[in-house]
Design a protein that fits this description.
The complex is a heterodimer of chains A (about 550) and B (about 150).
Chain A (H helix, E strand, L loop, with lengths): L3 H4 L3 H8 L2 E5 L2 H5 L2 H10 L5 E5 L11 E5 L2 E5 L7 H9 L8 E3 L6 H4 L17 H6 L4 H7 L3 H10 L12 H9 L6 E6 L8 H8 L1 H15 L3 E6 L4 H16 L16 E6 L9 H8 L23 E5 H13 L1 H4 L10 E8 L5 E6 L4 H8 L9 E6 L5 E4 L9 H6 L8 E6 L4 H15 L5 H18 L5 H17 L3 H5 L2 H9 L1 H8 L16
Parallel strand pairs in A: 1-2, 6-7, 6-9, 7-8, 10-14
Antiparallel strand pairs in A: 1-3, 3-4, 4-5, 10-11, 12-13, 12-14
Chain B lengths: L3 H6 L7 H12 L4 H11 L3 H10 L11 E6 L2 H5 L2 H12 L12 E6 L11 E3 L2 E3 L4 H9 L3
Parallel strand pairs in B: 1-2
Antiparallel strand pairs in B: 1-3, 3-4
The chains are: A alpha/beta (about 550), B alpha+beta (about 150).
Chain lengths: ~550, ~150
């Protein structure tokens, strides 16, 4: 077997990463904050050092972010725009630290990162996403080499030993999923699900844009383990930069001979990877709908069984894993399963990437070990809610999830514990709500979302959610009575039990969970005809 | 200008239908009946299936969009940061309702479910560029650049 280092010369990249260097974060968040003109200006200016575009370190609230390593000192600067970049250039020319723009001299000394554990995101915001040399310099593809030194069955056992659970939502054992398809003969497919439709979640986009080779390495390991020779990265159309980055990264792997036939000299390990772009349909995150979309059809879900592992794309066995799961696979083989299982709780191993958004001071993408209490994530990392506001609840798991109220904020981040409370970890979106948010209105919002995104194939979801939305609207419009609350609950249960796919089965969750914890607020709406948060317009009177 | 023939020469497989339609949408701003018939002929896919796909996915339009497509995010983070007010303001400013195009054909306004730039809520996307932390003033300034 060949080694990656024999094919990719990482010597220069090692020196690049260790030497004087300026980086500018140009993932989607950075660009929307104005990073592009900053990068262009720095590139045009002769400062005698490398100016590198990098991805996103997750610190969205500080974008655009520029780092400077000069005279052996590393500095992180925030809010660098085309208006103030000249000041930074002046400081660099004078070999001085620009104290005004400085955030810190290492990630670990910034409050936002102190409690984080960056395993999957270790390269994000550090390396040039499309420099395969820098990826290799950071230990990239050592995981693949480890995997290829084992048999496929042993790779699966290794993933089981690491107790990896799928990061897309359900938390199913990845090793078990792989073992169901590995024993099947003939043509098999692998899919990396980057549809990420949950509003409030963008960790997949961040990883695809910032460290594409890690996702691809995870896919290569998965394909080897299950014996698939064709793979797809399915990405939503709303992520043009992620699509561009993945296509470019795949092209690099093709050119460097890391995809194709007998990869790394391993006879029989052949793999072709391509990107498939969605076209704007939330339901396509559901695996059977996603497969229909890849085949060029309407994104209708199909009843399971048969599961994709039995009959998937073009009738062949297919394995589908989330982007974050693939990132974890690469990390497990890089660091070793025995190290990986030291992180997290008994049943939820490793870390979870979380998107902290909504009414929070420091919004962004964070990576924390499982088991961390929500309080630490929201307050110690996210900085809590704004001055003068009161934390009310955290919405987790998108339209399939639920809310966890302020009095349960010490709940640890763990699949089982969060599910028991009526929410789900899901893909990892956390939307922080404060006293100016109306829980009834938030539930109505999600019902509107689901009604729009229901594919319309099965009646309970198509009609049920439409009726449920109407009933929620009678509350927010002040036209509902106490009896309606029971009706809403009854219909919610019916939709949950009778819908065809995950979208419908989980659609009423936002309503059920807010009723569980915020019944008082519902009653204020239907009995007192009041909305304390002041959101429901029809209930605000003089 | 790309022609429908150019686009279709790149695709042959049934599974390429969505990719082909995306290219058509990008090149012409919508998918017309003629486009669908051309796809039927070259890719040998029944017209009804093509129409089914076009009407299923929100990215495909049956009517011409404006020169610039403004997508206002209504994802949860944007929603709680009152993206509805930004949407209302754009409706007022452009003098159109959701999914409509300005009479001069410059802008089409559309509310979408999540752009995935939630840390910058409220957000909007014009063509392929994302703008965040929107206020009325910021919207005014951004639209100036598209004049």
């Amino acid at each position: 077997m060949n080694t990656v280092k024999s094919m990719i010369d990482a010597h220069t990249a090692v020196a690049e990463l260790a030497g004087d260097r300026i980086t500018v974060g140009v993932a989607t968040c950075g660009i929307s904050a104005g990073a592009m003109p900053v990068l262009e200006t720095l590139k045009k200016t002769d400062l005698g050092m490398l100016v590198d575009p990098v991805g996103c370190a997750g610190m969205c609230y500080n974008e655009p972010i520029v780092t400077v390593k000069q005279d052996g000192v590393f500095s992180i600067y925030s809010h660098v725009t085309k208006e103030n970049v000249e000041q930074l250039i002046k400081s660099v020319r004078e070999h001085k630290i620009n104290e005004k723009m400085l955030v810190g001299h290492s990630l670990s000394e910034i409050d936002y990162y102190k409690k984080q554990r960056r395993i999957v995101m270790e390269n994000c915001g550090i390396i040039n996403p499309l420099s395969i040399e820098q990826y290799v310099a950071k230990g990239g593809f050592t995981g693949l080499e480890r995997a290829l030194s084992m048999s496929g069955a042993d790779v699966i056992k290794y993933v089981m030993d690491a107790k990896l659970r799928g990061r897309g939502g359900a938390g199913f054992s990845t090793g078990k999923k792989w073992s169901m398809i590995a024993t099947r003969a003939g043509k098999k497919y692998l899919v990396c699900n980057g549809d990420e439709g949950d509003p409030g979640a963008f960790m997949n986009r961040t990883l695809l844009e910032s460290d594409p080779f890690r996702v691809l390495e995870g896919m290569m390991i998965a394909a080897y383990a299950i014996g698939a020779d064709e793979a797809f990265v399915y990405t939503r159309a709303e992520y043009p930069l992620a699509i561009k980055t993945m296509n470019a990264a795949i092209e690099i792997l093709n050119k460097r001979g890391l995809l194709g036939n007998s990869i790394l000299g391993k006879v029989g390990f052949n793999l072709k990877i391509s990107v498939k772009k969605g076209a704007g349909a939330f339901v396509c995150g559901e695996e059977t709908a996603l497969m229909n979309s890849i085949m060029g059809n309407r994104g209708y879900p199909m009843p399971r069984p048969p599961y994709p592992a039995e009959r998937g794309l073009w009738g062949r066995p297919t394995n589908i894993n989330n982007v974050d799961t693939m990132g974890n696979v690469a990390s497990i083989f890089k660091m070793g399963a025995e190290e990986y299982v030291k992180v997290g709780t008994e049943n939820s191993k490793g870390t979870k990437t979380i998107c902290l958004v909504g009414k929070i001071r420091r919004p962004g993408v964070v990576e924390v070990p499982f088991g961390m209490p929500l309080r630490e994530i929201i307050y110690d990392i996210g900085g809590g809610v704004d001055e003068g506001r009161e934390f009310k609840a955290v919405q987790m798991g998108g339209p399939s999830g639920g809310c966890i109220p302020a009095n349960l904020i010490d709940t640890p981040l763990d699949y089982e514990t969060v599910t028991k409370l009526g929410a789900i970890i899901g893909s990892g979106g956390m939307i922080i709500l404060d006293d100016q948010d109306c829980m009834v209105e938030v539930a109505r919002y999600f019902m509107n979302f689901t009604r729009e995104e229901s594919c319309g194939k099965c009646t309970p979801c198509r009609e049920g959610n439409t009726r449920l939305l109407e009933m929620m609207e009678t509350i927010t419009h002040g036209k509902a009575g106490p009896k309606d609350l029971g009706q809403i609950m009854k219909l919610g249960m019916f939709i949950r039990d009778c819908s065809l796919c995950g979208l419908g089965q989980t659609a009423p969750n936002p309503v059920i969970s807010t009723m569980k914890y915020f019944m008082g607020e519902y009653k204020e709406h239907v009995v007192g005809k009041k909305c304390k948060a002041g959101i429901c317009k029809d209930l605000i009177r003089g | 200008m790309v022609s429908i023939g150019d686009i279709l020469s790149r695709y042959s497989d049934r599974s390429d239908l969505i990719a082909a339609l995306e290219d058509v949408q990008d090149a012409f701003g919508y998918v017309s009946e003629d486009h669908m018939r051309a796809i039927e002929q070259t890719m040998k896919i029944p017209l009804v299936d093509i129409y089914g796909v076009v009407t299923f996915y929100s990215a495909f339009k049956l009517k011409a969009s404006g020169k610039h497509l403004i997508k206002v995010c209504s994802g949860t983070a944007c929603h709680v940061k009152r993206s509805d007010l930004i949407h209302d303001y754009l409706e007022e400013k452009l003098g159109i309702k959701d999914k409509e195009t300005t009479p001069d054909g410059k802008f089409t306004l559309e509310s979408v479910n999540c752009l995935g730039a939630c840390a910058y809520a409220p957000t909007m996307m014009i063509d392929e560029e994302v703008f965040g932390q929107l206020t009325r003033e910021k919207v005014d300034k951004i639209l100036e650049d598209y004049k």
